[in-house]
Write a structure and sequence with these properties.
Layout: E1 5-8, H1 11-20, E2 26-30, H2 39-48, E3 53-56, H3 70-83, E4 87-91, E5 94-97, E6 100-106, H4 112-129, E7 134-136, H5 151-162, E8 165-169, H6 170-180, H7 184-189, E9 196-201, E10 205-209, E11 212-216, H8 225-238, E12 243-245, H9 254-269
Parallel strand pairs: 1-2, 1-12, 2-3, 3-4, 4-7, 7-8, 8-9, 9-12
Antiparallel strand pairs: 5-6, 10-11
Helix pairs in contact: 1-2, 4-5, 6-8
Length: 279
């Protein structure tokens, strides 16, 4: 089956997609938006019947030292069982501690101890779901001094030890590479192609800070040319994979997102060997 391109299904577009069924290869929901029955849940289920689907969790806190919250895990597992999506994913991050939830995806040190924690939590999640999940690389704004391995090394070991897949977010790679002065091509060198299951694309903000710039992963604009170029490299290097356009702030009209998904489709069909601006 060909690698589809699609969009994140957001509330402002749900009624329009439910009514018009636009041509899209894939829709992705945030799991935490649909853990309880509601009118929007019913509309989402109607849409799900006509599209390939992905469930993207944001609150499982896979890097939490005190493990996964059993109640939250049970709710996500029930949603996945009900929807039977093509893909399930969450982030390489933590957002809970001691029963408290933080409204952010917080960074991990890349150490053996942290790797043990994430492997343990991913194993528990995959056992609860009865299927493979994929882990997304984060956007980084600082390097943790006592990390003992690089991010690609950490992700590679996580995939090897747990059997999870990897969700490559090209925007996050670009943001991290810029903020930490890393060569994104060398970042890609450390990843196992066979583990990569999905791509994400999004826009970012550029902030001026003390004479320099820092990129913020805000999902609030079109995908930038550098990210399209990096996505092309990923597709050429690792092969086409299902791809989702994410847009979460300043959400535009649906045709804008459909156009971004079309551009991704062109690059996937060309195996990445294509000028992104021409696409």
């Amino acid at each position: 089956m060909n690698a589809p391109a699609g969009i994140g299904l957001r509330a402002p577009h749900l009624a329009e997609i439910d009514r018009d069924r636009p041509a899209l290869g894939l829709l992705e929901i945030h799991a935490e938006n649909y853990l309880l029955p509601s009118p929007s849940f019913a509309a989402m289920e109607r849409v799900r019947a006509d599209y390939r689907f992905s469930v993207h969790a944001v609150g499982l806190s896979l890097g939490a030292v005190d493990g996964l919250d059993a109640a939250h895990l049970a709710r996500v597992a029930a949603l996945v069982k009900r929807l039977q999506p093509d893909l399930v994913s969450d982030h390489l991050s933590w957002s809970t501690h001691g029963g408290r939830y933080f409204n952010d995806l917080l960074p991990l040190p890349y150490t053996e101890e942290a790797l043990d924690v994430v492997v343990r939590n991913v194993d528990r999640l995959q056992e609860a779901l009865g299927r493979q999940i994929s882990i997304e690389n984060p956007s980084c704004y600082l390097a943790i001094a006592h990390s003992t391995m690089s991010e690609p090394e950490f992700l590679s070991q996580l995939a090897k030890r747990s059997g999870c897949g990897l969700l490559l977010d090209a925007n996050n790679i670009h943001v991290t590479a810029h903020n930490l002065s890393i060569d994104p091509a060398r970042w890609l060198d450390g990843l196992p192609a066979a583990a990569i299951t999905e791509y994400h694309l999004a826009g970012h903000a550029v902030n001026e800070v003390e004479g320099g710039t820092i990129l913020i992963d805000d999902h609030g604009s079109r995908v930038g040319d550098p990210v399209w170029g990096l996505f092309s490299q990923c597709v050429e290097r690792f092969g086409p994979r299902p791809t989702v356009i994410e847009w979460d702030t300043d959400i535009p009209a649906l045709p804008v997102l459909l156009d971004e998904a079309r551009r991704a489709s062109v690059l996937l069909a060309a195996g990445g060997r294509h000028d992104a601006r021409a696409a």
